[in-house]
Amino acid sequence: MNQPAGTAVPTHGFEIISRQDFSDVTYLLEFRHPMMARAAKAGQFVIVMSHPDGERIPLTIADFDRERGTVTLVIQAVGKTTKEMQQTCKVGTRLHAVVGPMGIPSHLGASKKVVCVGGGLGVAPIYPQARAQKENGAYVIGVVGFRNKDLMFWEDKFRKVCDELIICTDDGSVGIKGLVTLGIDQAFKNHSDIDEVVAIGPPIMMKACAEATRSRKVKTMVSLNPVMVDGTGMCGGCRVKVGEKVLFACVDGPDFDGHAVDFDDLMYRLGRYKPSEKEALERWQESCRIRGDEALAQAGMNR
Length: 303
Prior knowledge:
Blueprint: E1 14-21, E2 26-32, H1 34-39, E3 45-49, E4 57-60, E5 63-65, E6 70-76, H2 80-88, E7 94-95, E8 97-102, E9 113-119, H3 123-135, E10 139-146, H4 155-161, E11 164-169, E12 176-177, H5 180-190, E13 196-200, H6 203-214, E14 219-223, E15 239-242, E16 245-248, H7 249-252, E17 255-257, H8 263-272, H9 274-301
Parallel strand pairs: 9-10, 9-13, 10-11, 11-12, 13-14
Antiparallel strand pairs: 1-2, 1-7, 2-6, 3-4, 3-8, 5-6, 14-17, 15-16
Helix pairs in contact: 5-6
């Protein structure tokens, strides 16, 4: 379609070429960034600004396609910025800035049998981990958890890279009824030679996964995504306690030994930001309401 004379075609930023809505709060954005797609590895993340005045938010890479030159993010609209992106990020629009890939890529050792566990939004970033483990020669058992069948996504993608796939739902509408820890138990019941477990999801879920494997003395890695500002370790917002050390998720992670992470401290620190996050969301929602009222008033004047 030809642009009208004098209309500038935006060339800055990174074009969104695909969007998919998995539910009323979870959506996928695939954007074009050939250099990042070539460099990306499992376990890494990006920092995104949707517009020039937007907040910088860290998002784990859910997929990347080196041939297409694209990177995929799966986002849950829970705060001001992610809800704003849900409204504004459409196919053909552009992300203002994307920094990455950041973080240390997941270490792929000599594990021969690996359980990759994703719960809720953690299902998306566990996918490249499962694919990388499979490409590394491991036997991969996928364990994915959702609240119900309607919120499921990427089952076909997982079946292509997993030798076995265990699905868990809170309501039992598909697969095992219960939490992903029941899926972990089933995997260990069927396989006595599991070398490693990788878990991604809410902190409370990752803590439960680590406890499920502690007595079994099986290596368990988790991916942490705390509050982050600059992504260089300078702001200190993403510091986490791992054993006797204080580390930074952005430069020392995001993958850490799940048996050494102080999850209680992590959840306490995340809770400290809740009032500010709530205030920012309420201000944004109020500004949306005001803009909507003004638009309706203007439409009435133009009749």
